[in-house]
Amino acid sequence: MTAFAAVDLGASSGRVIVGRVVDEGDGPRVLLHEVNRFPNGPVRVPTVPGATAGAVAGPTRETLHWDVLALYRGVLDGLRAATREVGTLAGVGIDSWAVDVGLLDADGALVANPVHYRDARTDGIPEKVFATVPAAELYARTGLQVQPFNTVFQLVAAQGTAALASARQALLVPDLLGAWLTGTAVAEVTNASTTGLLDATTRTWTTDVAERLGIDTGLLPPLRAPGVLLGHVRDDVRADLGHHAPLPVWTVGSHDTASAVVAVPAASPEFAYVSCGTWSLVGLELDAPVLTEASRAANFTNEAGVDGTVRYLKNVMGLWVLQETLRTWNDAGLPADPPDLLAAAAQVPALTTVVDIDAPDFLPPGDMPARIAAAAVRTGQTPPQSQAEVVRCILDSLALAYRRAVRQAADLSGRDVQVVHVVGGGVRNELLCRLTADATGLPVVAGPVEGAALGNVLVQARAAGVLHGSLADLRAAGARGLDLRRYEPGGPGTPGTPHWDAAESRLFP
Ligand code: ADP
Ligand code: LRH
């Protein structure tokens, strides 16, 4: 038995999970055990006018940040617990949400808490960037979807700030934590592919694009593939963890979605996936990027996967909308118990109200029920009235968006899709899984819940020489330990695929 620690930082919680690779004669499999979970989310922090002595007080601004030090503490606590549990770990791997960076100054110190990708500082920035580097040119090079939060837009938005002026290196969140553990600063390539500054074909930095945009290319660290040794945990940290043997840190698919896709328990290549957590990432695994104009118009992204694969996918707004709805109700003193609300939503007639869940209105934190009502009115529908109707509207709208994304991905790439795999926390939402099967007209296989952690462990285990072979071999090892659930179109409480055709043509004429 060999054990690894997977650090997986999602937008709503961080976790440290021990993955044991065991083989009882029927082939290797991975057993996951969570040893620490800690909350994560945006923190709104104001600037203080006149923070510099003698400065003219400017208007107060508020910025959404991540509390990265609390996350680091959660990681260290988790690694300590993992060490207590298994004695000696064969490695640590770190993955997190994409795009956001911590800036380090010339002393290597963190300049400020990383800004959260839902902050409004990038409003209007994509248009400004496209005036210098046209959108079509950027897509042809990077293959990346346009989201206001792409790192390239964040760095342009930060131009002129004191923080960026003092920065010498920009580290994506998993790379920042990896650097704190080992002292080695790199950019792991799957996550680097979400910056908008990585060439989708050569997988090298597009330094020429950065220079045209006035971005200091010195900020960009050396690139590393997933599945290599980053370094060893520094002695002082290791002593603090109580880990006596040298502790390697392996690069993994450090973009959580890249790790989640590794863990998709697909038996054949004709699969689509929904990596279903705070976001829903819906798409296909390809051998080469799709850089066509039609793909750009549909805003599909070509992110780097493990073993040179391409994650050809669309960002669907995801369970974030439900999370923020529950938070809004909770703050207002209304009932906000997820199991009760999901049970009530299952009784609401399907497709009564559907909204374009990917509309930019749903990106920032806030009152989602009010935004849903406004979206319903804009499209000539009656807003959902009861809490159950609001929840049902969110789930129907998500399933409709999954259906569109799966079909578009298949059309744009010329690939056939026979099954949809759902991985991530959304696996626990049975109603959403049923609706997804019905909307797509395809069987859904749900599991694993901790997809990113499983993919993280699989890649570490191969790097450490404990597992061997191709991505398909890793998937087979990952699948062996799983309890998967299958949903067919036309399941209980679903309207039948033709009703989704009608709803789609109504909402997206
Ligand atoms: P992330 O990694 O982005 O933080 P997760 O993969 O942990 O997200 O998924 C979180 C989501 O999973 C929650 O927003 C919630 O909607 C869903 N979820 C988690 N547990 C349950 C449950 N028991 N029933 C229904 N949904 C659940
Ligand atoms: C999901 C995710 C997604 C990105 C978003 C910023 O956690 O990494 O793939 O687009 O966060």
Automatic annotation (TrEMBL):
One MF term in GO for this entry?
rhamnulokinase activity
InterPro entries with a match to the protein in the record: ATPase_NBD (IPR043129), FGGY_C (IPR018485), FGGY_N (IPR018484), Rhamnulokinase (IPR013449)
- Species lineage, top-down? Bacteria, Bacillati, Actinomycetota, Actinomycetes, Micrococcales
Q: Quick one: a GO biological-process term for this protein?
A: glycerol metabolic process
Record flagged with keyword Glycoprotein: no
What is the name of this protein?
Carbohydrate kinase, FGGY-like protein
Q: Which residues form the Carbohydrate kinase FGGY N-terminal domain?
A: 67-262
Output a single Gene Ontology CC term carried by this record.
Answer: cytosol
Q: Does the keyword Transcription regulation apply?
A: no
